[in-house]
Amino acid sequence: MIPVKIIGTGMYVPGEAIDNTELKALASIEFDHLKTEEKLGIYKRHNAKLRGIDETTADFATKAAQNAIENAGISANDIGLFIVGTDTPEFITPATSILVQGRIQGGETWASTFDVSASCASFAIAFDNAVRIMATDSSIKYAVVIGVYNMPAFIRPDDTFGYSIFADGAGAVVIEKRFSEATGYVDGQLLTDGTQWNFIGIYAGGSRNPITPDLIDRKQHGLLSLQPLPGDRNVRLWPMVIEKLLNKAGKNINEVDHFIFTQINKSVIIKVMDELKQPIEKTSFVMDRYGYTGSGCIPIAFHHAVQEKKIKRGDLVLFMASGAGLAVGSNLFVY
């Protein structure tokens, strides 16, 4: 077990929540809100653009990190590592984590920064990277890992599906290197299939497809769904990855006190918990309040579970994240 401890959590979402009825008016769209609520579990979300709020990815990430640092009760200048997990960065370059470090620490420091862009698995993979870096670098005592999502900034005006599902938000954790307590990072398990790159994503703005007036006229910018995702993807993937992670860690599934999944579909999470033969009380849902916040959803759900005392010190916690690409990340740790 890697001797690290999560000592602070924080989150941020922009503006007042938008329910499904108000969303239809603000975005000038129509959709089956009952299906969205009953199947996906999404009743509300936060959207800076629709609220007329001039905030984007770096703003969300910075505020979530500041809240986590305050919650941890440490000085921002003590942070030696900033990692931002997102596939909706502030810019192509420089990395969003660099902007966050500059805003929080105010200038040149000995901190390290980088982004992890692995679609909606970015936070889980960033968390795994952070603890392994801390295990080998004696100069880093504290790290901040942020998961942030600003997909609404990339949704075209006619994308009813995008507006009904995706939302803005960020969650963050502060990690401390500790050797004296029975807390720590047990292990992680990753899975990747890059042959599945052409399902859903943002395919314009990089080196392959620079933004041009013609590309915009053809509506090839912003979020694109090129082909339907397999309906059973997460039902198949999540139990398989969890089994491999627990076998790797030498743990039994009944030892896990709480599971936090990518918050894309409530009915899928219920189905997976049933397949795992675990009580539904051992997981959390936040999509009802925040919609789908991509890489922000796991740290947001974790923050709520800690604040609501669903997760307490000494609990064995499992994060299970997946996203387009295909990228999958999981974490097992003692809180």
Descriptive overview:
With 335 residues, this protein is of the alpha/beta class. The chain has two domains: 174 residues, Thiolase/Chalcone synthase (Peroxisomal Thiolase, Chain A, domain 1, 3-Layer(aba) Sandwich); 151 residues, Peroxisomal Thiolase, Chain A, domain 1 (3-Layer(aba) Sandwich), CATH 3.40.47.10. The chain has twelve helices and 13 strands. A five-stranded mixed sheet has the order 1-7-6-4-5, sandwiched between helices. Strands 8-13-12-11 form a four-stranded mixed sheet, sandwiched between helices. Helix 9 crosses helix 10. It is globular.
Tell me briefly what this model is.
By secondary structure, this protein is an alpha/beta fold.
Task: Sum up the structure in keywords.
Peroxisomal Thiolase, Chain A, domain 1, single chain, 335 residues, alpha/beta, four-stranded mixed β-sheet
Topology:
Blueprint lengths: L3 E9 L5 E2 H8 L5 H8 L3 E2 L2 H4 L5 H16 L6 E7 L10 H10 L6 E5 L5 H15 L5 E8 L10 H6 L3 E9 L6 E9 L7 E3 L10 H5 L5 E3 L7 H17 L8 E4 L4 H10 L11 H4 L6 H11 L8 E8 L3 E8 L1
Parallel strand pairs: 4-5, 4-6, 11-12
Antiparallel strand pairs: 1-7, 2-3, 6-7, 8-13, 9-10, 12-13
The tally of domains stands at 2
Helical fraction: 25-40%
DSSP summary, beta strand count:
13
Order of helices and strands: EEHHEHHEHEHEHEEEHEHEHHHEE
Q: Which structural class do you get from the secondary structure elements?
A: alpha/beta
Main-sheet strand order equals: 1-7-6-4-5
